[in-house]
């Protein structure tokens, strides 16, 4: 009922999102998007260009300040490193005790709490216990959110389906309500204890911005307090689901390819050793870990399409006329599996990113992987996400040897959605120190 342009091919996507960036920077008014953050989401709403740009700038600068801030002790290079190392430590303890108790563990269930705690630390200045039911009921869900907002949700394109009862839609609405209530409660607590001279976290910094009643210098746009403070909903939502899905997929790939897991462990053992945690500064000396991360991003393409875009004016692309307000899907999966860009694209092979000696990552090939979008709507959490995934993985690889349960076959078929998840499963982890 609504025409959609689907863009594939690296050149075409770059032409649209980078060279004609402003023309393709809108979001379509889709039925399902109206329920996210009461329609006030930064990532999914149809905000006018000026309002969206001002909110994006605010979100980006809050995120940058609270991740690059100095750690509380000199052993950490920044707050992000401190949060991840501390959560990595709890995660190791948690997995170890679950293994002792149950003999197996569900990777996503535990990883998601650790990852959520990192963004909770930056957004709300607090963390939750691994068994905290309130947090678990928000983050440890089967993925109705991703299924409804993934490109091509039928009810967004065939309006009659909006009136037909759907259990997925019901769960989606309930997730959105619980999510908004959870954050609203924390924001209210922050307003009550806010102190201009002690900005504790991203929520405080957004409240501070409202108090100052700053105008955006470029566009003179005045936004409501709600539109400013609700930015924290986007940062928390985008910050936990994507990174935990990525780390969880990485563990699945290591179990599926044990020889690759051994190589990863050997590199960390030889470079970092077993006596201290890996740090961000180790990244340059761990090319195989870097190559593995790029290959998981490429091969899984767990964000197969970006969030849908829409044209902001009449435009044309590759000689085709595209009217204003046309919905546009960006096919990241196709670019990451294009045989014109990749040799044998369906094979999982981290070495494709390394030079022949295996000592360096080929930057040009790394940049061909499309996972964070491009241009004006490109992910604002990319640097944080890449650092976070690197540290979590390096910590897990250093501490554990992951295996599948005897006799079980791992199902790597992804479940379609905005972020594609692997099927929930149980694995084993043994401490390297006890091997
Ligand atoms: C592996 C992790 C991540 C991946 C693969 C990822 C990927 C993406 C993609 C594909 C988009 C949509 C781009 C488009 O529409 O063209 C996006 C948007 C966004 N991401 Fe990420 N992301 C990740 C982590 C994060 C993190 C950690 C944060 C923040 C803490 C974040 C915040 C956002 C926001 C706010 C947007 C909306 C930007 C806008 O609409 O202007 N992301 N991300």
Automatic annotation (TrEMBL):
It comes from Knipowitschia caucasica (Caucasian dwarf goby). Keywords: Endoplasmic reticulum, Heme, Iron, Membrane, Metal-binding, Microsome, Monooxygenase, Oxidoreductase. Its main location: endoplasmic reticulum. The keyword Metal-binding applies. Its cofactor is heme. It catalyses: an organic molecule + reduced [NADPH--hemoprotein reductase] + O2 = an alcohol + oxidized [NADPH--hemoprotein reductase] + H2O + H(+). GO terms for molecular function: heme binding; iron ion binding; steroid 17-alpha-monooxygenase activity. Cytochromes P450 are a group of heme-thiolate monooxygenases. They oxidize a variety of structurally unrelated compounds, including steroids, fatty acids, and xenobiotics. It holds the Pfam family p450. It is found in: Endoplasmic reticulum membrane; Microsome membrane. This is Cytochrome P450 1A. The keyword Membrane applies. The lineage of its organism: Eukaryota, Metazoa, Chordata, Craniata, Vertebrata.
């Amino acid at each position: 009922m609504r025409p959609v342009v689907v863009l594939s091919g690296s050149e075409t996507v770059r032409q649209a999102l980078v060279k004609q960036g402003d023309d393709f920077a809108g979001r379509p008014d889709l039925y399902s998007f109206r329920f996210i953050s009461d329609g006030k989401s930064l990532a999914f709403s149809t905000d006018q260009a000026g309002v969206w740009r001002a909110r994006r700038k605010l979100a980006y600068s809050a995120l940058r300040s609270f991740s690059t801030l100095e750690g509380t002790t000199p052993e950490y290079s920044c707050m992000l490193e401190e949060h991840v190392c501390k959560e990595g430590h709890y995660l190791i303890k948690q997995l170890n005790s679950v293994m002792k108790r149950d003999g197996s563990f569900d990777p996503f269930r535990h990883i998601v709490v650790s990852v959520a705690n990192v963004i909770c630390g930056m957004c709300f200045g607090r963390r939750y216990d691994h068994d905290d039911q309130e947090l678990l009921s928000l983050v440890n869900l089967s993925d109705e959110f991703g299924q409804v907002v993934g490109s091509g949700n039928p009810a967004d394109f065939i309006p009659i389906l909006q009136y037909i009862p759907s259990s997925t839609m019901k769960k989606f609405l309930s997730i959105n309500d619980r999510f908004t209530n959870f954050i609203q409660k924390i924001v209210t607590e922050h307003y009550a204890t806010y102190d201009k001279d002690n900005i504790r976290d991203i929520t405080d910094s957004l409240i501070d911005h409202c108090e100052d009643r700053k105008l955006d210098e470029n566009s003179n746009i005045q936004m409501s307090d709600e539109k400013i403070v609700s930015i924290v909903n986007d940062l928390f939502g985008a910050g936990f689901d994507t990174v935990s899905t990525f780390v969880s997929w990485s563990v699945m790939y290591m179990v599926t390819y044990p020889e690759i897991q051994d190589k990863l462990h050997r590199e960390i053992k030889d470079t970092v050793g077993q006596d201290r945690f890996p740090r961000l500064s180790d990244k340059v000396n761990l090319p195989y870990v870097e190559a593995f991360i790029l290959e998981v991003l490429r091969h899984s393409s767990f964000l197969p399409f970006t969030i849908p875009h829409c044209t902001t004016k009449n435009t044309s692309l590759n000689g085709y006329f595209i009217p204003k307000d046309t919905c546009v899907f960006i096919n990241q999966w196709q670019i990451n599996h294009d045989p014109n860009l990749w040799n044998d694209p369906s094979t999982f092979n981290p070495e494709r990113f390394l030079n022949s000696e295996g000592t360096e990552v080929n930057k040009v090939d790394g940049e061909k992987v499309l996972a964070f979008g491009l241009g004006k709507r490109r992910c604002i959490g990319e640097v944080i996400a890449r650092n976070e995934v690197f540290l979590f993985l390096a910590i897990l690889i250093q501490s554990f040897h992951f295996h599948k349960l005897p006799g079980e076959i791992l199902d790597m078929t992804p479940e379609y959605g905005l972020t594609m998840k692997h099927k929930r499963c149980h694995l084993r982890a043994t401490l390297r120190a006890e091997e």
